[in-house]
Amino acid sequence: MTxxxxxxxxxxxxxxxxxxxxxYVTLRIGPQLLGLPIEDVREVFAPQGITPxxxxxxxxxxxxxxxxxVVTAICLRSxxxxxxxxxxxxxxxxxxxxxxxxxxxxxVDGIGxxxxxxxxxxxxxxxxxxxxxxxxxxxxxxxxxxILVILELGSxxxxxSLAA
Amino acid sequence: xxxxxxxxxxESYEHLETVDRQVVEFENDPSNSDILRNIFRLVxxxxxxxxxxxxxxxxxxxxxxxxxxxxxxxxxxVTPAAVTLTLESIDRIKFILGVLEQxxxxxxxxxRDLIVRxxxxxxxxxxxxxxxxxxxxxxxxxxxxxxxxxxxxVDRLFNGSEGLEDGLAEPHDEGASAPSNGERxxxxxxxxxxxxxxxxxxxxxxxxxxxxVSELVLTRNQLLEIARRExxxxxxLPLQRLSTITAELQDGVMKTRMQPIGHAWNxxxxxxxxxxxxxxxxxxxxMEGAETELDRQVLERIKDPLTHMLRNSADHGIEPPHDxxxxxxxxxxxxxxxxxxxxxxxxxxxxxxxxxxxxxxIRRKALEAGxxxxxxxxxMSDAQVARFIFxxxxxxxxxxTNVSGRGVGMDVVKTNVExxxxxxxxxxxxxxxxxxxxxxxxTLAIVPALIVAVGEQRYAIPQGVxxxxxxxxxxxxxxxxxxxxxxLLRLRERLLPVVSLACLLGVGASALDDGFVVVTxxxxxxxxxxxxxxxxxxxxxxxxxxxxxxxxxxxAGNTVLGDGAVVLILDPNGLSRAIGASEHDxxxxxxxxxxxxGGEKTQTALVFKAGGGALKAxxxxxxxxxxxxxxxxxxxxxxxxxxxxxxxxxxxxxxHEALEIRREGVQPLVIxxxxxxxxxxxxxxxxxxxxxxxxxELSGREPGVLGSAVLGGRAMDIVDLAHYLxxxxxxxxxxxxxxxxxxxxxxxxxxxEFLREMLAPVIQAAGFRPVVCADAIEALxxxxxxxxxxxxxxxxxxxASGGLDLVRQVRSQGARSGLLLIGLASVPHPDIxxxxxxxxxxxxxxxxxxxxLIAALGAVHDExxxxx
Lengths: 164, 868
Fold this sequence. Notes:
A: 164 residues, mainly beta, six-stranded mixed sheet, 3 helices, 11 strands, 43% strand, B: 868 residues, alpha+beta, 41% helix
């Protein structure tokens, strides 16, 4: 994990985005940068004490206690069809989200900056993008040095790879 | 939405629920003016408040309904038409209220159709004589209606001057209607004591309170955990106080969540009324224990299953009136709904006096639906077959009605009941009725649980199902035994199936022999769950599983322990299903005590050793003699061991493959004989003769073993002699008295599974094809379908398997007059012999006298010979 991706709280004070701009929390899975719309993200935290759930889908890492709430931890790597990373659970970061009133933690390899990007530069998924990935993405942003894949939270949590 | 409107809606719904029930009561008992007064007052209140809130449509309907009720109250005859119309008005009121709730405004349209009919009926009824108030302007109602002196005067007119309570039909109604009544009376300054003691609280407020108490319980647990670890005594006292207070608070909040189960019953009388009308049946609904309180969360979850059960009883259970009359029963069927406390559970029973379960039909349906195979069904007891009604896709109603019969229902009921940690059981008596018993926990929110460890993980098991903990280790006082790969724990005369939690969860196999067995009971089903360690008991707050994990049947939820860790709560029902215990034990579980009574299972068994380690037993009645012969005398003719015994050559068969027949010394033999033939079963040693109940626990998978049982505190295999007989005489079972003869059927009707297993080979050995039935219903069905029936062998003492009634029924079928009937009795004492003769039974023999049975069956052959 690079130092700049270390436990970074979300900038709560960020000024309101200009019209036509959206803010994304960026995260890293291996070398790939992905983004989640900031309004989907509740918090970013270092996951601790995950209780595995036997018989659950492999992408369900387990359950964890986040200030009294039981949160289902999901391995984003696994959902995206990637092999387990070199980072152990304790080295990974979690993005707290909520879908249909249920809390989830997406386990990622690292958290990046919050980026403000103009909606106009959002491009449709490249046609040759991995089928699995395009299931969970609503488009990509071309950055100067890399491509930011925008995740769609609903389809990640609703993924068939999570069904027991 | 307007607070006032919200309040009005809540109150009106409560009124309506009461009205629903009372209208039906009123129809049944038109002379009950108390009830009518109540209905009238409730409709009247709705009407009054409508005017106040400016709801003209609702008010118009309520007004016309009230007019009608007014006439009835004043003495007009209560006709079914009047009741139906009143119910229809209530439905309309509900419809309007529903729209109001959603949109905040009355729906478009008017209710001319209904009002015209209501008014027509009111006009047609005898004119009331007393002062009535609907003579006034019908609309608009005066805006300040609820509190006008005029109305209170009206109320007093109907109520007399007594308090409000006496008008209410059942005590549990007080909770529902007292606040509204109280509000009214307090407005005019004559507040009842009840009103001062109750307040209306939003359910969500109580839920929030409950959630906070849950967190408090968690925090207390955390503190207790720290205190345990630190051993700091200065914490001890305040912590104890905190603990007590928390427990009391939890208790108190829990109580506020309690509601009388009668709240879930309000709609049922009307439901039954509608079903009766639809099906053309006459049904009385009797409700007892409506005041029984339970957690409203549980109440919500039990509502639908209850409705299903009631529908089921009305549709499947209660017969049409002409059938009932033909069966000599009262024309009107009766469904009884009873609730009560039983320890930490609520027991709800729905019983009817209908036709009971149609077992042959269920068998047929189960076969048609492919739920079970024909052979499997043959082996199943009625009680086991009956439980198929909880199986999805099985409906026994011959015609699909609106009410039920679509193959959904009882399976959903079972699923719902089990989902809240409850259990459902059923009992029935053919022609007499059936009853369904549901046992559910008082609350779902906070439960005491046992925390166990498997590997590095901890799991919670609800304490309610845990009977005891047993430490098992190889060579210890209690140890796990293995029978053909299945693990068993011998626990006080019982064999308990045991599974390792690690295996069930697929989290690596921990040593199955060394650990703790959590003895778990669900219904009457027992099983053991093997865990690595038992840590502590803790009050846990049950949190639901995330929706994506709910499909895992082994978990009921999760919780946060005192140390902050999340643990999974095991679902005992899921465990039980995973073990598969249900298949084996359901029959025994549902068969009830009467099958066990009667001592027919108390038998004397010969216990011997025959290699393979396990003790073996055979009922002594099947044994002719025990001999110890000089092994040197055993001869071998064409590779088969034989011995000269009483002047004849007798074959010898080893009781176990691993057992070598001795060549020197003394060879113990168990002699089994049949007519002129005898066989020696070579055993290792004779151990004992034990008297006791033979209760076969598991069907053996080993050839020559019927199953295992505990006798005299020891587990042993029950030997199946039918396996050895053909080894001695290859033609033993195929009929030794001539071979070209067609094999005829013999019907064996015997309720005891053990006796069925024992006697069927005897019938086979006598040269017949045994057709085995467990009870009279099955037997009569088999009688109809049997092709070439030679004889019926039946148990005359057991009423459930038909007894002498069955004899009469068979006799009454004229075509069967030539059929040989053989009765079985444990002891043929004069009384039963005499009654058997009266019933037309030719032969009565003792249950274990196989020689007599073979001799009696021989008569069938003789008849055949005569006929030829």
